[in-house]
Structures are given as C-alpha cells and as structure tokens.
Design a protein that fits this description.
Layout: H1 3-18, E1 31-32, H2 45-57, H3 76-88, E2 93-97, H4 100-110, E3 117-121, H5 126-133, E4 138-142, H6 147-156, E5 162-167, H7 179-189, E6 192-196, H8 211-214, E7 223-227, E8 237-241, H9 243-252, H10 254-257, H11 264-297, E9 311-315, H12 319-331, E10 334-335, E11 337-339, E12 350-354, H13 361-372
Parallel strand pairs: 1-10, 3-4, 3-5, 5-6, 6-7
Antiparallel strand pairs: 2-8, 7-8, 9-12, 11-12
The chain binds pyridoxal-5'-phosphate.
Pyridoxal-5'-phosphate binds near residues 171 and 227.
C-alpha cells in the first residue's frame, strides 16, 4: 500500500469503527423523504422551459462562464437577477454566490475582524463554522436558541464589536430561531445579526422571501443568506443587505473573487424560480403546511416531535441504531436518511424526514405510522 493510502486508510478505519463511514447511494425508486426539494421545483417542467426561454433571449450564451465574476463571468442579466433578489427580500442589494457553503464562508471569513467577537448558535451549519475558522475574530457558541445565554455573552463582550449568527430554520432539527428576540438583543447591544435562511427561502414569507421578511424584520437584519439548492430547486445562493455590503464582498471576499462564476443557465434557473414563486408561493406553502400537519398528527406516540418546518427530526441515538432504523424504512420504500455523529452531536443521531408538496398523503401517513411503531 502506498504511503498516502496508508495514511488515509487509518482515518477511514476509524470512521468504520465509529459507524460514521459515508457512502454515496441513490435510491431513486423510493419515496423521497430526504431531499431539500420541499416545493418540488427541482423537477418542475415549467421552470425548465422558462429558464431556457430566458437564456435564448440573452445575447451571449456560454456553456460555462469562462472566469470569475470580476473577469469574464459577469453579465447584465445577473444585475437584473440580483435586483429581483434584493426586491423580493426587501433589501437594497444582493450578491449571488456559487453555493450557500461559499456564501457563508464568505460572510464569516471576510467581515468580522481581529478583535471582534462572533457569537453563534451551537447548531449552526458547517459552512458557518468553517467560515469562522478562517476569520481572525474570536468566536463563542451559545446553546441552541438560548436567548438568555446569548444576552449574557453580549453583556460580557459589550466593549467589542459582536456579530451574532443564527439560522432561521435549523437544518438538522427543523425548528425555528426566536429571531425577533435575538434581533432586539442585537439592537440593544449594537451587535450585527447574520441570519442564514437556507431552509426558509421559498417555504416561508410572501413570494418565498423567508422568515425575516415574514416577521417584518427585514430592515433589522443587515446580513441574510438565501440558498437556491433547497426549496428553489436549483443551485447557488445570495447574500442580501446594503449596497455597501455588496461592494465589500466584491472587494474582500476570497470566495467571491477567486472562483469561476456559475454558468449563465444557473442564473436563469434562479430567476425562473423567483418568478414562479411570485405566482405560486401561497398554494405551495399551504400544501406543504397541510403535509406537515398530516405527518405530525400521525406520529402517534411522538407528540413531542416538532413540526415547525418541512424538516422533522426523530432522535434515535447511536450511529448503528439510527442506520438500522433508516435501512428498515428504506426497505419498505421510504427514502429516509440517517444523520450520524459527527454531523450531529453524539447521542443525537437521528432520522431526518423532509416533507414535500409532492409526497402523497398515503405515503406520509404510512411513514409516520412506521416511525411511530
Ligand atoms: C443552514 C444551511 N446553510 C448553508 C447550507 C449550504 O448551502 P448549499 O447547499 O447551497 O451549499 C446548507 C446546506 O445544507 C444549510 O443547511
């Protein structure tokens, strides 16, 4: 065995021992209860046609963008899209990134400076944590949704410039952040609030604008991240906020400057999804809410299960136990995935059920009953 393979095999062996070895698999014949395509837009024929039509009208059609946004990867259409995004999310400006991972890395690594403090919910996504690692600011977590602990940390660091990072819908637990309380605290302590709306984009708010707009808080939250690989069914992400924020990121975000821009068709896909939501967000969100209620009302012995969003988390505990449970559901036709440690904390390994507008009522009832057993 080569030296490299020897080194890598040791780590892989450890993952096997912990039961956390990851493997790629596709279960296309099963009922989808695992994707983030909550509104079914990823396979919406109208969107595909509309995106193609817009693309055909643009004068330059490239298969790829050929360079970064600052070199050859920009196009006037992207300006138009970014204005549409800004308007939808009630902000001055927006900047599209290649993914939500990149957008979070960008914000967290480039904005907080040495001497600043980042306070983040312990359940924040890996992209937020990875972004903070690249920052020279100090960082401290607070317990999930614990506004008292956040307040005492804001008091403790009152002399510093603090940034607070939360998600509007937590990706692994599916519960919501107390955004209003956190936003008020940030205003009280002049901290800057960053809200990752990855899982509420499309699924909440007028035109799918997300939870902060839905709560009327858009003007109070200076930095928001919206992603397009989930309910919008395509790919990419945007950071929304002021024109100054946009210019800052264009100038100082390494994740924006040093990467090839998305191909033009990715931008037309995002545009088509926003356009579609303007006409259809109400019926889609209502259907999704009905499916959520149907699932929770059939979770017979699990009345404490939270169903605040399309993500429902059922804690099993233990990597092996959770994998066994997921495998049993898959064998019965349901594509439910096990989320293992270290992705979630040890002991909190779980089934992560994602509900969609296209899940049939029968399949939802059957799955809820199987899990309840
Ligand atoms: C809360 C949250 N933020 C950011 C991301 C990353 O988004 P993307 O998949 O577009 O890279 C994810 C994806 O899982 C997420 O759940």
């Amino acid at each position: 065995m080569s030296k490299l393979n020897e080194i890598l095999s040791r780590k892989l062996e450890q993952a096997h021992i912990k039961g956390s070895f990851r493997q790629l698999k596709h279960n296309s014949s099963l009922f989808d209860f695992c994707s983030n395509d909550y509104l079914g837009l990823a396979s919406n024929q109208y969107l595909e046609d509309r995106s193609r039509t817009i693309l055909k009208k643009l004068s330059h059609i490239y298969y790829g963008s050929g360079g970064s946004r600052l070199i050859s990867g920009h196009h006037s259409f992207i300006d138009e899209l970014e204005q549409l995004i800004a308007d939808t999310h009630e902000s001055e400006a927006s900047l599209v990134f290649n993914s939500g991972y990149n957008a979070n890395m960008s914000v967290l690594s480039s904005i907080p400076q040495k001497g600043d403090v980042i306070l983040y919910d312990e359940l924040c996504h890996a992209s937020i944590k990875d972004g903070m690692r690249l920052s020279f600011a100090d960082r401290y977590s607070f317990q999930h949704n614990d506004t008292q602990e956040l307040k005492s940390k804001l008091q403790k660091f009152a002399q510093k410039q603090c940034y607070v990072v939360i998600e509007s819908v937590y990706s692994m637990d599916g519960d919501l952040a107390p955004i209003k309380t956190i936003s008020d605290l940030c205003e009280q302590f002049q901290a800057i609030l960053i809200v990752d709306e990855a899982h509420s984009t499309g699924t909440f708010g007028k035109d799918g604008s997300g939870i902060t707009c839905d709560l009327g808080l858009a003007k109070h939250i200076p930095i928001r991240i919206h992603t397009y690989g989930k309910a919008l069914g395509c790919h990419g992400a945007s950071v929304v906020g002021s024109n100054i924020l946009k210019n800052y990121l264009i100038n100082f975000s390494r994740q924006f400057i040093y990467t090839t821009a998305l191909p033009l068709h990715s931008y037309t896909n995002i545009y088509a999804a926003y356009e579609y939501l303007k006409d259809h967000y109400k019926e889609l969100q209502q259907t999704l809410n009905t499916k959520q209620r149907l699932f929770s009302s059939n979770m017979l012995h699990n009345k404490d299960i939270i169903c605040q969003s399309p993500i429902v988390s059922i804690i099993i505990g233990g990597n092996e136990e959770t994998k066994t449970k997921a495998k049993s559901l898959q064998d019965q036709g349901f594509d439910v995935r096990a989320i293992l440690s270290p992705t979630v904390p040890l002991g909190k390994e779980r089934l992560r059920v994602c509900l969609h507008v296209f899940n049939t009522d029968e399949s939802i009832i059957q799955l809820a009953k199987l899990i309840s057993q």
